[in-house]
Amino acid sequence: MYGALDVPLCRETMVSQQGGYAALARRLPEDALWYSSPLQRARDTAEEIRRAGNFAPDVTIDDRFIEQSIGDWHGTPHEDFLSLLTLPPNPFWSISAAELPPAGESMLDVCARVSHGLEDLATAHEGRDMVIVSHGGAIRAALAHALSVHPDTALHFTIQNLSITIIERIDGLWRVVAVNELPFFQG
């Protein structure tokens, strides 16, 4: 279990996914503001997409879009993880949204963090397109915010690597345009 650990992407996989980065670059707005989680895997993904699309080199690192920290449970083998939980896990996520790992954060905490980040950026850059390269948990938190649903409900969404999820804020209200849209490419 690695959550917010800074685990690098496999270089061989990155090479094999060049078509995916190019397909994503074609799908993204040219004049968007770019943000990334501070984790290397998100930063590397942003760099590859930007390189494939010849976007300007500016990416702002924003800690609010990092993956859920599972604190002292980072590095626990999957087969041992369930024995650490105090609450039944969400059927589609490793832990319940209310579970608070020691020295970590609950998904409720992640939702609060991501919600503040989204509102701050949308207010500061009203009317601008933004690309945020992030992680499955943080994207689910963004969906919970946009839909005004409990985080356990948002954990039912599938978020795959190299997928696009689009949310919009219009007149202070959020809506979901797309979830887990995968690029069409030959790998």
UniProtKB/TrEMBL annotation:
Supply the SUPFAM superfamilies for this chain.
Phosphoglycerate mutase-like
A single Gene Ontology MF term assigned here is: phosphatase activity
**Protein name as catalogued:** Phosphoglycerate mutase
**UniProt xrefs under Gene3D superfamilies:** Phosphoglycerate mutase-like
Specify the domain of life of the species encoding this protein.
Answer: Bacteria
InterPro entries linked: His_Pase_superF_clade-1 (IPR013078), His_PPase_superfam (IPR029033), PGM_Phosphatase (IPR050275)
Q: Name one GO cellular component term.
A: cytoplasm
Q: Which Pfam families match?
A: His_Phos_1
The record's listing under CDD domains reads: HP_PGM_like (cd07067)
